[in-house]
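quick one: S-adenosylmethionine bound model?
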Amino acid sequence: MDVYDVSDDLVKKLNDWKLIGIISGKFNELKENHRKVDFVMRALIDFKYMEKIFLNVTLREDKCNKRSVEFRMLGNEQFSLKNRKYFQALELYNKSICYAEPNSEHLSIGYANRSAVLFEWKRYRQCLANIELARKANYPARLSHKLDKRERDCQQLLDQQPPDVVPYEFKLSFNSHPQVPFIADCLELRESADEGRFVVTNRDLVVGDLVAVEQPFCSTLLAPMRYIRCATCKRENYLTLIPCDSCCSVMFCSEECKQQAMSTYHRFECPIIDFLHRMFNKIHGIALRTTLAALDLYPSIEELMAFCEQQQNQHKCAFDLDYSQLSPQEHYRAIHGLVTNQHLRSVSDLFQRSVVCAVLKHFIIEYTPLKDHLGGEEGMNFFTDLLFRHLQTSPSNMHGIDLVEQVNETKDDQTHSSGAYAFLSLLNHSCAPNTVRIYEGTKAYMFILRPIKAGNKLYDNYGAHFAISSKQQRLKTLSMQYRFDCKCEGCELDYPTFGRMPHKATVPSVTDDTEMALGAYNYDFAVSNYRKYCDFLTQYGAAYPCEQISSAEECLKMALHIMVDAVPLKAKM
Ligand SMILES: C[S@@+](CC[C@H](N)C(=O)[O-])C[C@H]1O[C@@H](n2cnc3c(N)ncnc32)[C@H](O)[C@@H]1O
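yep, here:
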């Protein structure tokens, strides 16, 4: 059961009982969003949906040594000489570490087993870090001879380990914009009746130009990545992750990231973390996180209410901020001002969104300390309105953060997190985009993918790409999900048989044919930029032990996956 099942079931019931007309009429009459949500919430409570959810969905799994041992055994099986599936072993050991009861020996054995994998991988520094974690967690004396020996061997071999990798820092291709320091000075904001706000360039741009390097206001880690990445900084760090002390579903790369989480978003999410993962999708997740991050900006809810109501904070964007000392409060003005498209939404869209908001609100208020933070009715209504607002801004503005640094062995989907980016959210959609985003951690780099003449717009792609889905499908998605009728230059292109996300494609080998196939746009890009990508990716490749990206050729393939995007455009030239 997820929240859409609840919403569908409710609508079906109302239809069967011939109540849908009356209910949607009453719902539509309510002007304020918190009234809409409370109206739906009453129906959900009256029809016993909240009770049913409570009985069927675990809010938070308890720490459990028995399960910890089970996951460790599964990890041992993957680690065995027969299998040697080290990545899978590490993920299972991390799960075992998460489920272990605090102060139990199972936590320490989990760390010790992780150190054994790292020893095999010749990652001696991380191996020693895990040995230390195991000791601090009271590793049993009866086993300590094994750990002592591994530690001695490790110290001897440490010299052979290459130095830690310093991530590659791409630099903007132009001077910084006078107002927005992390974008190129040639970018300008414009607005039209058809497209709302959008970004243009006042100089010619060529393929490979880097025009923006942006950090998000906030981000969330997707559930499938919870035993691989740090929930706070989102860095892939399955080698030395430490668990949350209370739940079994969140890990951190350091005590600092853990403390930061516990004093902000995680104190509210932790008591219901498994319910959140089970019932809601990534859009709901980032909407909740953005709302919690907003609540965290001021000591009291009244101050945040005053901030949101001020005229100077309405409909603001990345170009309106004061970057002299960018505080989180200032940053949020641009996130609060993202388009909701509420006036374009149908009653059924708003009703479904109200169900999502009502279920989220009910459980977070009932089962976490959030209620104390919100005070009385006014604070509660404000919270509901804010959550509802971000449930509307998220689908069209939030960005999936992709993996470029490594394709690990078990995860097909390379998107690991969602992020709220003030500037990137100003780019409109094209089915044949002229920009491409790549990420280092949560930092987004925006590159030019096709030449753009001065005066023309920069376009991103919202997932409806000409090479992946048919024109008909794209128009449907864009109008249903993003609420606009697409009339971009790529609309007429229709190559769905290309059939894959460009950077997820498999380029069998880097041959002359592949190079030929790149076309003029991509050829320029390839020649001038592949070395940068190779450098970038090789450095990461070198940092990873599972040898998925270990050679320059692998890196070039990755680079081509990004660039090969524009191949069918050659036909248009
Ligand atoms: C990420 S925002 C882009 C910035 C937005 N135009 C604004 O004013 O803030 C996404 C929204 O922009 C609008 N939009 C994006 N691409 C568009 C396009 N090609 N044509 C018309 N509207 C578009 C839609 O309202 C969409 O929901």
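Residues 405-412, 497-558, 560-573 have pLDDT under 50 and may be disordered.
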